[in-house]
Amino acid sequence: MAMLGSAGLLVLALFLQSGSGASYRAVENGQQDLQLDKYNYTTYHPMDEIFTWMEQVVKANPGLVSSQVYGQTYEGNNITLLKIGLESSSRKKAIWMDCGIHAREWIAPAFCQWFVKEILRTYKTDERLNLVLRNVDIYVTPVLNVDGYRYSWINESTRLWRKTRSASREADCTCYGTDLNRNFYANWGMVGISRNCLQQRAEDILCFLTIHSYGQLILVPYGHPQISAPNYDELMRVGLAAAEAMKGVHGMVYTVGTSPDVLYPNSGSSRDWARLTGIPFSFTFELRDKGQHGFRLPEEQIGPTCEEAYVGARSIIGYVHDKAFNLTTTTATVPVTTPSAAAAATGALWSALLACSLATAALL
Amino acid sequence: MPVVQLVPGHYPARRAAQVAQHYLNTQHGSPYRWLQVERVLSATLEEVADKGMKYNVTFSVKDGVSEKSAGMCSAEVMFPANEVQSLPLQAPPSQAPPQVHCSCEDLLKTNTTVEEDALYQHLKSNASVLVDAQYIPDSFGYIAPEMRPIWHLGGAASSFVMLKESNENTLYNLAQLANVTQLESQNDTLLFQFHVLLHEMVSQEIISWKLQASWCPAEGVRVLSAEWQPKCHHCVVPPTNTTLATTPPS
């Protein structure tokens, strides 16, 4: 419990500092054997290469990208995010993206890296994106389940590992690991400990995107078949607009719906947890394919997959940004509606929950 | 019970179509033909008293070998009543497999006879150099070009198991051929031993089977035996010095 508290405070500090312009970890001794301008975004990278890449991205983009360690895993690895945003005199909103909750879904961390690369490549010339970065900080965690991801890289026999690497007391080898995407809700009780620690960033998170594979789906809350999100219609419209945009890239069809409609009922997913805490827009991307290759998506499909997923994420981010800042939405087919009272009412306390729960889940 | 219209994009329709996909691959799969559901177009469900749950689905299929559209199919998939739910962590209990009737337009318009005959002759004449490979595809999704027909063959063989093991609460895909060995054959069919890893989407479990399958162009793919592999034979003790380590694999 003591560990939970300190880890939660770490993240808490992150969010508290973000409004006051405090400096983030400066990377001074990044490994030089991996050059950022030659980084290959169309291959899968092991954990250490991704960490080095993160350090180099921070170093190459001062004032735009910073990194923060916001938790430690069961095996003592850092969980690190990149924060991307332009300086602003007014308080900024936030968008969250995590990849690599499930170790074997290698395309997800590949996409988070691609996503960062595309933003950095285009933000100077893309006025819309530039505006987003002035209004919003985007928090990207390329690999959340660091232990599991490392484990999946050991050899062929560990490649299909899904969960964390926390040990069970059961003398049964099937009991290794916690499924991070089934235990967000379960951790709520522990998270509540920190409820009083932070209230000033309430409702500032606009959007929560969690990236997975496979199945070509865009999932909206909730996973429980009998619970409907108060803004379900709007979530579906935004998701369908994203899927339509993605189809325009390489013709790939992504199905949009709640998990109990299009996949299976589940509980404890980070997507549901995010929506429950009051974040109005929360989506799970299940990237390519539909099962022919599954988790072993060939590397030649990394580029096309990321291209279409970027367009989908961009579609959602554009919508939530324009809505929050009262701009005419760029996706004309998606009408702007006012946030529901329920969403606003539960909007408080999100950041403490987000911060602490992620750290909590990682420690299990 | 009346006939219920299902939303084609929702999972009940998708799972029924996936069962039909496995059925089609048991019938038509080969080293050069591996059928995949492309899109479910319509689906209905009817509970038939004392018989089970009957799905009727229409769907488009593509050939996973050529990546070309392979036409339209309509299938009736009956999941027998009183089925025993499969529990992937334990030995799968015997359940009555789904019964499938399926008809397709243009399914076999791609003629693969020439390629199949050439591969058959190659594998048959190379009796001294039998196929022996593992990890298809590898961790990075790579498959050596000469192994692609073997992957498709393993996919067709796996469909026999995935069809038999399917029920309304499963969605199976082939995750990997962990191992494939060509065995010496006493007749004109070629014999293969496969160790396959199947991914069951609903439980998110990886399930391991050993299959012995035969193939020749005239008779297609047949599975002669299939043996479920207990999970713990493939467990690996993690390389950390944890005091909570599990028992090593036997």
UniProtKB/TrEMBL annotation, chain A:
Cofactor(s) of this protein: Zn(2+)
An example Gene Ontology CC term for this record: extracellular space
Pfam families assigned: Peptidase_M14
UniProt keyword Chloroplast present: no
Positions annotated as active site in the UniProt record: E286
UniProt keyword annotations, A-Z: Carboxypeptidase, Hydrolase, Metal-binding, Metalloprotease, Protease, Signal, Zinc
Domain (Peptidase M14): residue spans on this chain: 43-320
InterPro entries, A to Z: CARBOXYPEPT_ZN_1 (IPR057246), Peptidase_M14 (IPR000834)
Signal peptide: 1-21
Alphabetized GO MF terms: metallocarboxypeptidase activity; zinc ion binding
Domain of life of the native organism: Eukaryota
Keyword Repeat tagged: no
GO biological process entries: proteolysis
Family as reported in the entry's similarity comment: Belongs to the peptidase M14 family.
Name of this chain's protein: Peptidase M14 domain-containing protein
UniProtKB/TrEMBL annotation, chain B:
A GO cellular component annotation in the UniProt record: extracellular space
UniProt protein name: Cystatin LXN-type domain-containing protein
SUPFAM superfamilies, per database record: Cystatin/monellin
Signal peptide: none
Transmembrane segments: none
Record flagged with keyword Repeat: yes
Residues covered by the Cystatin LXN-type domain: 2-112, 132-241
Sequence similarity: Belongs to the protease inhibitor I47 (latexin) family.
A molecular function (GO) term: metalloendopeptidase inhibitor activity
Keywords: Protease inhibitor, Repeat
InterPro entries according to UniProt: CYSTATIN_LXN (IPR049897), Cystatin_sf (IPR046350), Latexin (IPR009684)
